[in-house]
Amino acid sequence: MADQAVILLAEDREDDILLIRKAFKKAFINNPLFVVRDGEEAIAYLKGEGKYFNRDEFPLPDLLLLDIKMPGVDGFGVLKWIRQQPSLSSLRVVVLTSSEDIQDVNIAYRLGANSFMVKPLDFENFLEMSRFLTSYWLQMSKTPETSRPARRPQKPKEENR
Q1: How many C-beta atoms lie closer than 10 Å to residue 5's C-beta?
Q2: What is the separation, in whole angstroms, between the first and last Cα of the chain?
Q3: How many CA atoms lie within 13 A of 30 on its CB side?
Q4: Looking at residue 156, what is its pLDDT?
Q5: What is the C-alpha separation between 17 and 36, in angstroms, rounded?
Q6: Angstrom distance (rounded) from CA 107 to CA 109
Q7: What gap in Å lies between CA 72 and CA 69, rounded to an integer?
Q8: CA-CA distance, 135 to 116, in Å (whole number)?
Q9: Predicted confidence (pLDDT) per residue in 23-39, tens digit
Q10: Helices (H), the chain
């Protein structure tokens, strides 16, 4: 169901995170929204490493909203990594950034972005963009299958004798 589709937001700016949450709430978008604040955290979430190990608690997203201007591993690095993972290569990725630089647009598409959107400057346009994102990417567009690679069972720890 479209309202159960999981959205992962990779965004480092708290103001933008709050704006997206507010726009989703006002637009009655009730999809589960998970937030990571940099590229390393986005990759850890998608891999299911560290605190993201439990897939029931941190499900694979149906849509990734990806900022490209993040500290450490930027959005381009995340996008490149995703497209190299057989189990995640079909994940739908919408670059959502403040950059209007045509070079950024070209790089994002060359690396496999499904869409490139510039963050609106005012709330009403942000609200419209939120409605469009969920309407198109989560209701009209069919979600491809993605999966996390199987984990090797952990060896039981030997008890101290």
Answers
A1: 18
A2: 52
A3: 5
A4: 45
A5: 10
A6: 6
A7: 9
A8: 16
A9: 999 988 889 999 999 99
A10: 14-26, 39-47, 75-83, 102-110, 123-133
pLDDT tens, residue by residue, 48-96 = 999 999 999 999 999 999 999 999 999 999 999 999 999 998 899 999 9
Q: Are 116 and 108 in contact (CB under 8 A)?
A: yes
12, 71 Cβ separation under 8 angstroms = yes
Strand partners, 7: 33, 63
Provide, rounded to the nearest whole percent, the portion of the chain with pLDDT above 90. 64
* Token reading at 122: 């005012």
AA letter at 49: E
**Look-up of token digits 């490493």:** 49
Structure tokens at 36: 């990571």
* pLDDT 10s digits, 103-141: 999 999 999 999 999 998 888 888 888 888 878 777 666
CA dist list (Å): 136 to 16, 60, 91, 131, 158: 21, 19, 15, 8, 52
Judge contact between 46 and 101, C-beta under 8 A.
no
Mean pLDDT on 147-156: 47
C-alpha 67, offset from chain centre: 9
